[in-house]
Amino acid sequence: MAQKVQFTETVLRDANQSLMATRLPYADYEEILPTMDKAGYYSIECWGGATFDSCLRYLNEDPWERLRNLRKNLPNTKLQMLLRGQNLLGYKHYHDDVVQKFVELSIKNGMDILRIFDALNDFRNIRTALEVTKKAGAIASGCISYTQSPVHTVKKYVQMCKELQKMGFDTICLKDMAGTMSPNEAESLIKGIKDAVGNMPLILHTHCTTGMAYMTILKAVESGVDVIDTATSCFSGGTSQPATETLFYALQQYGIKTGLDEKIINQVNDFFKPVKQKYIDSGRINPKSMGTDAMALVYKVPGGMLSNMIANLTDMNAMDKFDAALEEIPNVRKDLGYPPLVTPLSQMVGNQAVTNVLVGERYKNISKEVKNYFKGEYGNPPAPVNAELQARILKEASMAKPLDCRVEDSRRTGEDFAKAKSALGALARSEEDVMSYICYPDQTVKFLEGRKAQEENVAAYTIEEA
Ligand code: CO
């Protein structure tokens, strides 16, 4: 039987987020959705991540309405979202009742696949979301934050995948957010994982940032990966995903079935070309995000983390400390038990390394976030942390030991949803409004007040006309 590799199209979410800070309004792509619906994608990643915040904060769009419209115009395609487990779309730990309600509403409004991850790969933080997803009959994809460190061996990743399978996830996704996975690593990882989890579909998500992605994906395909994430070619490359059409042609020549319709995927790209041009002209797409930057491979840290550090040091007129700060990163990371370098952990590690170097004494100043991390508030680190440092931080906080449960379980349970509902009062017309408010209170109030004012204006205008 011919090998089959399916595609998840990311132009509406990750490509949009990576290249243009998620500022693509729904109206810009509504017209092409019926065409995309015929492309034969495994799924379209179109919601979650930063799209929700961006809708409310910048685009004056109701994210739930966007989701319903996507559903309506993509009736035959699986809609996919990215969910940060117990953190939903941000970095706070929410109560279980909020997580449950969020997942229920997402599925009720049209979501088919929830890709669920935790920055630390602490799977206690993704269990609630998993359970509700399954109960509501949607597809739960267990997602691993990929990183490189002395403790992140193939064996460790295989164990994680077995755990996800045992928990009841339908598929597994390896999420290489920094684009640092090499072809060699992909080969041993994917072979190891496929051996361990049998028929369970395996997905690879990577970024072109360092230039590795096409080679890595080809090796992943050779090694048996089932689904790959790609973006229509004009929205591919740079900090985005590799190109849909390019990989389609490459795999087709190997006789690999993709299920994609060649004509349609090219039509999709033709549609998005002028859309992209519009945002290049307006300066929304930074040419820097379109390039290849291999620095992340040299320093083993994501590109975004490096540019953050450079910006901070430049602001403080201390670029002469850049090399020292770079050397300090692996030390801080080791002290923290090798967390994956994904937001917000990458910023925490980077900022602490810069502080250690600037102050001239290690951990004389420790950020609140790093302290909370040592108290166990982010979850279990991949490896033991620096015990001396942890003892000092716990003592200062009058804690005998770090949290040995989820943050959620250390607090009183439930009722956040009800509280938010009463706080919002008459502004809220639906549970979806309340959920937006819980996730982004200030932006949501502003958005809902705007919606109300707009309707009143329309009403007043109509009376005058009459
Ligand atoms: Co991504």
Would you write up a description of this structure?
By secondary structure, the protein is α/β, with parallel strands linked by helices. It has helices spanning 11-20, 33-36, 51-57, 63-73, 96-108, 127-135, 154-167, 183-197, 213-222, 244-253, 262-281, 295-299, 303-315, 322-335, 345-359, 368-374, 387-396, 407-410, 416-424, 431-439, 441-465; strands at residues 6-9, 43-48, 79-83, 113-117, 139-145, 171-175, 202-205, 227-230. The protein has an 8-stranded parallel beta barrel, surrounded by 6 helices. Helix 8 packs parallel to helix 9 and helix 14 packs across helix 15. It is globular and about 70 Å long. The structure holds cobalt (II) ion. Cobalt (II) ion (CO) is lined by residues 14, 177, 205, 207.
How are strands sequenced across the largest beta sheet?
Answer: 1-2-3-4-5-6-7-8
| Distance from first to last alpha carbon | 69 Å
Q: Helical content, roughly? A: 40-55%
Secondary-structure class: alpha/beta
Largest sheet: 8 strands, parallel, barrel
Order of helices and strands: EHHEHHEHEHEHEHEHEHHHHHHHHHHHH
Q: What is the C-alpha radius of gyration, as a whole number of Å?
A: 23 Å
> What's the helix count?
21
Shape summary: globular
pLDDT average, as an integer?
Answer: 94
What portion of residues belong to β-strands? 5-15%
Question: Could you say which small molecules are bound to this protein?
Answer: cobalt (II) ion
Question: What is the number of E strands?
Answer: 8
Q: Regarding quaternary structure, how should these chains be classified?
A: single chain
* Uncertain segments: none
